[in-house]
Write a structure and sequence with these properties.
- Keywords: Nucleus, Protein transport, Repeat, Transport, WD repeat.
- The protein is mainly beta.
- The chain has no helices and 11 strands.
- It has one domain: 7 Propeller (Methylamine Dehydrogenase, Chain H).
- A 4-stranded antiparallel sheet has the order 4-5-6-7, with no helix packed on it. A 4-stranded antiparallel sheet has the order 8-9-10-11, with no helix packed on it. A 3-stranded antiparallel sheet has the order 1-2-3, with no helix packed on it.
- β4 and β5 form a beta hairpin.
Length: 149
């Protein structure tokens, strides 16, 4: 709550059960109609229908937008989601970066507390650290290989 008012709730969901249903969307609860409404879709037109392997929402430390990472077989998309809806109630969405480097599926993604560093791992056994600079440009900061025991 802020100033006695309830903040909006957002939910991110993805479905990889069917090639026709693969998507990652952001939903907001509409109390007036007691239902969930899709307010954003995190996919470029050429990405629609791609299987989604992992999703991770970055902590927001004062940015005027949210940052969400979505992993598909094409790599990891870093999405900026605006907080002010348009006249249709949709949130503005912009793909900020495309990250590639893993060989195979990305299974897990975690953000640091600042929301500027993303750790990813997957079927290739590698852990990769991706970082954004203050200009919003992303690069691979480190790659960690598993050590055989």
């Amino acid at each position: 709550m802020r100033n006695g008012e309830q903040e909006p709730s957002f939910v991110l969901a993805f479905n990889s059960d069917s090639p026709h249903l693969n998507s990652s969307k952001i939903w907001e609860f509409d109390e007036a109609h007691n239902r969930w409404l899709a307010v954003a879709e995190l996919a470029s037109p050429e990405d629609k229908g791609d299987p989604v392997y992992a999703v991770s929402w970055a902590p927001n430390i004062g940015r005027p937008y949210e940052v969400v990472a979505v992993a598909t077989h094409k790599g990891i998309g870093i999405w900026q989601v605006g907080l002010a809806p348009d006249l249709d109630g949709r949130l503005p969405v912009k793909k900020a970066a495309s990250l590639s480097g893993h060989q195979g599926e990305v299974w897990e993604m975690e953000w640091d507390m600042s929301g500027m560093t993303l750790a990813t791992t997957g079927s290739d056994g590698m852990v990769r650290l991706w970082q954004s600079n203050l200009n919003g440009e992303w690069h691979e900061q480190a790659m960690l290989e598993p050590v055989p025991s």
